[in-house]
Amino acid sequence: QVQLVESGGGLVQAGGSLRLSCTASGIIFSINTMGWYRQAPGKQRELVAIITSGGTINYADSVKGRFTISRDNAKSTVYLQMNSLKPEDTAVYYCVAEKSLRRWGQGTQVTVSS
Fold it and tell me: Fewer CB in a 10 Å sphere around the end CB: N or C, the chain?
C-alpha cells in the first residue's frame, strides 16, 4: 500500500519560512520523481516543484529563488523549504510520487498572513 505522508504546514506571517516534509512508503522511493503541488481556494492545482530520481529540479516561476526542493533517498523523504513566504502562497500543499503512476498525499495546509 502506497502512502505519502506530509507534515510541516501551518500558519506563518509574510516573510517567514516553513519546511514541508513528505515521507513515502510502499514505493521504491529512489526511482520515483517526487514533487509538490498546491491548490488555493477557488483555483486549480498547480505544480510548485519537482525533483527527478537523477536530481533534476524544476520550479514554478512564482516560487523560484524562494523555495527549495530536496530529497533524501535513505529516508524516503522529500522536502520543500519555503522562504520569503507571501500571502499568495496560501494553499493546500500536496506531495506527489510519479513513476508509471502519479500518487498523491493527503495534503497539508499552509497559510501565510499579511
Answer: N
